[in-house]
Structures are given as C-alpha cells and as structure tokens.
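WP5 quarterly update. Target: DUF1266 domain-containing protein. Source organism: Saccharibacillus kuerlensis. Length: 239 aa.
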Amino acid sequence: MEKLRIRETDKRSMRAFAMGAVLFRMNGLLEETGFAWPASRREELRKLLAHTWSVKDEESLEKHLNWLWEEGSQASYRKTESFISALSFRDREHYFDRLNSNAALFNHARLVQMYSGKLSRAGIAAWDLGQYVFICRTAQSAGWLEAERSIELAAAAARKAQELYKNWPEFAAAYLAGRQIWNNQPSAEAAKPYIDCVSTLLTDSRSLWRRLPWDMSLEKDTIEEETENPLHSDLNSKA
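Structure tokens (predicted):
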C-alpha cells in the first residue's frame, strides 16, 4: 500500500488532508496510511472518480477542481437562497406548489430554505472544499497527480477553509448541509452515516479533527494571495 513519506511536513500534510476526512473514512481509508488507496483498488477508484465527479483523466481533473474552487455547489446554493429570500411568504408558497411535480427541484429548494440563515456566511463551501481535498488525494493514487502536488492543492483548500470558517464544528455543519444539498436527499436516514462520521471526528480524541487544531499554520514558502486558485499558477501553465 502506498504511503506518504515520513518527514517533517507530515503533520502539515495530514492537516490538509483532514479536510476530506469524512469522504476518506466513508471509503474505508485510514489516516495511518496517509489516506492512500491500495494499489489493488486503482481501477475501482478511477471508476469512483468518473462516476461521481466525471473525472476521467488529468484534463477532466483540472476542470473539476477549478469548478469546485470557483463555483461548486456553493454557487447553486447561493442562487437559490437569494431567489427564495426575495419572495414574499405567499409567493414562496406558490413557488413550492409549482415545484411539487418536480421532486429534484422541490427537494433542492426545500433543503436550501431549511439551511438558509443557519450556516456561517460562507454557506456550504465546506462541502466543495472537502470534495476538493478528497479528489486531490484520490487522483494522486489514480496516477493523475503527483504526490507533492496533491499535498500543495489540499493545503491551499485548507487555508481557504480557515479563512471562511472559525473552527471544525462550524466547518462540519456547513459540510453536512452541503453534502445533503448535493445529494438532494432530505431524509434523515440518508444523512445519518455522514452525521455519525462527522460526530466521531468532532468527539473522538484520536481523530484528526481533535488532534490537529483548526487554525494550525499551513503557510507555504512562497507568498501569494491565500484565496487565489492554486491551479492558475501551475496546472494551467504549459511549458
């Protein structure tokens, strides 16, 4: 099984990868191995990336990572939230009545309404950033991203999250809301496995979220704007 090299930056690497800890755990990956996929699962994980995120090669990987960074599920959430909040109570009821015939649109609108005003100002960006980190590490195991680059991109996502959220609990609440909206499934039963996983990460003293502080330094040697898309400076530049 592939492992991250043991060196002085491992703690920083694991703090970066901790952003994707929920998806790593849900896929049976362990932090003891740096959330590395066994070589025997390469084809399985490639199918996972293709089926869930339409990531099939280096080009589609770059495209999807850019989308998660620039827009992601957060964009749709904000658009729907803004629209619903602008409606009067009566117009809102009429709007939902019209959506009754379309379960997907109805569920999305209801979920957005349910979480509107209950999350931090950053909304559900936590879900997008959590996916970003998971995909970076998984793409590295798939052979589409260098190990060092996967760490750099994950660290950039973690720094962005530090700017948007105050602590692990605030990040977790936004992450769960985002995942539920992305899955478009309002039932408590569908959300329970993820809620249980997040609860363990928040309460178990052995978990990364308890061992590694939210505000742990993730600074790089080079100086740049923290919110700048890290793909713009490297993956998009061709020699």
